[in-house]
Amino acid sequence: MTETLHLCVIPGDGVGQEVVPVAVAVLQAVLPEVQLSFAEAGWETFQRTGTALPEATMSAARQAGVVLFGAVASPSHPVAGYRSPIVALRRELDVFANLRPSRSWPLPDARRDIDLLIVRENTECLYVGRERLEGEVAIAERVISRRGSERVARVAFQLAMQRDRRLTIVHKANILRISDGLWRESCLAVAREFPDVQTDEGLVDSVAYHLVRQPGRYRVLLTPNLYGDILSDLAAALAGGLGMAPSLSLGERCAIAEPVHGAAPDIAGRGLANPLGAILSVALLLRHVWQRGDLADAIERAVEQVLARGVLTPDIAPATQETVGTHAMGQAVLAALGA
Ligand code: NAI
Ligand code: MG
């Protein structure tokens, strides 16, 4: 069984350019046979070429089926012709389930009691981008479909089977009775296919509250797009910080591994960015796409060892401690891997 493993690498903007090469080096150390292609996307690409997601990038991504994405810088004001390439790429590859694990790392500022997986619907909700102005009133449409809800729920319940068989459906169906009502009902229908999973539900605001008070009470949170976006940043903050947080977007045929963080313009270009979010995203690829849980475990153990030794980038270090940069952190992980 020697299936060729292809990966399309898209570093993007800002610190994406710095952390992705480090994550690629770690991947090559554990899986030297992986076939890489490189492609461009983002704000810098838009300014140079007039498009943020060139057709060549799209076809390289489609061809590989598996993408490692850094980050892109998207302006918060409307720019004619610009749309976020990562949102478009997720939609184009139909990667509908976004996995965002958070676990406590041995860090001075991290909570000790987190081992949580957020499974976030990745294609619908307010992120369909249907906004319009009617005079002085802005209206955004929120789309929730039964099919979209059920397919992400199925992924979440399958993963819950490996995580103590506990899952919480997150919604706000007490207010959004029709949209979150359909989400809740669809997820509960899938729950009936998984009688071994202990399923409960929580209102998103209450889940946020309990997540801060007692994060250990959750193992898998199944959320619509917007709630998952917000709750996963919260979980990342508790577990060690945005620089540490990995994610994987999964579809029927395609996958995108990407750190949760953005382009971090405040530190970009200085070699200070934490590459562990990107490295841990590669571990998710190995575990969930390439069925190499052994290599994923090895990477996560290496990261744990490095942190326990006090090798820290500035974002995860106490102010008084000496820190390392992106490159040195990558070297430390490679050394811990014995590479
Ligand atoms: P951000 O994640 O880029 O930065 C937030 C804070 O976390 C900053 O203080 C930054 O220095 C720090 N940080 C982020 N990644 C880090 C790393 N690897 N190591 C150390 N510190 C790190 O989010 P922000 O500031 O809201 O957005 C900046 C730009 O990134 C915007 O243009 C935004 O649109 C874009 N963005 C892109 C995302 C993506 O491509 N998936 C996700 C989030 C934001
Ligand atoms: Mg976010």
Describe the structure.
It is a single chain. With 339 residues, this protein is α/β, with parallel strands linked by helices. Helices cover 39% and strands 18% of the residues. It has eleven helices and twelve strands. The chain has helices spanning 16-30, 43-49, 55-64, 85-92, 146-160, 179-191, 204-213, 225-239, 276-288, 293-308, 326-336, and strands spanning 6-12, 35-38, 66-71, 97-103, 115-121, 131-134, 137-140, 166-171, 198-203, 220-223, 248-250, 255-257. The longest helix has 16 residues, at 293-308. It starts with 5 loop residues before the first strand and ends with a helix. The model has no long low-confidence stretch (mean pLDDT 95).
